[in-house]
Design brief:
L-fuculose-1-phosphate Aldolase
Length: 251
Amino acid sequence: MKAIQRAQGDQREWQLRVDLAACFRLAVHFDWHESVGNHFSVAVSDDGKQFLMNPKWRHFSRIRASDLLLLDVDDQASLEGPNAPDPTAWCIHSHLHRSLPEAKVLLHCHPPYTTALATLKDPSLKAIDQNTARFHNRLIIDSEFGGMADNDEEGHRLAKLFSQCRSMIMGNHGVTTAAATVAEAFEDLYFLERASKTLMLAYASGQPLNILSDDVAEKTARAWEELAESAFDHFAQLKMMLDEQGADYAS
């Protein structure tokens, strides 16, 4: 019985590795990557303390399932070695996984439109269409950027904020999404960047925004929640696209 459970656990971890590796390749496909920075992670233990994350300073286009590091929040050795996560990656992901074990997946990056929105004096995501309305009252705006997130105090602060919602625009910084599955976290990241693009293009027109009423925006957001299962189909289709291109992310 123990051997069967171990085998099932190994198979589950490998599938998480494959799915997270696909996220890195898709981030490149959608032009969300940035040099060799940014970081995605997925918890493999129920308490969130053990998680997989990309090795330090590896370009997203080269990350494979077998490259992902298995890290332990309580093991300081996780910060040693040439591939150990950089201080910002460890600060954000170790604290969030430890404090919010239900947030199995954390995707942090600096996609262009959401990051541009994050730099505005008012970085709120106005509900002007159905994609922007998807995040109505379902998005955290963190306006307390104080430099690189690389210390315990900042990690605790972010964890407290994230307990309120699963998507965050990090003012003057970027974006982080959290969810119970890779597909759901990726879907939130995908639509948050799409929504930010729509809003930034609307701002660029110089014309007044036609903002939806709270009632219509809430109705639209709830309709999105009823379509939550589509995230899994979308992610599966995107992985098929990678497979058809001959990507080696699953190795």
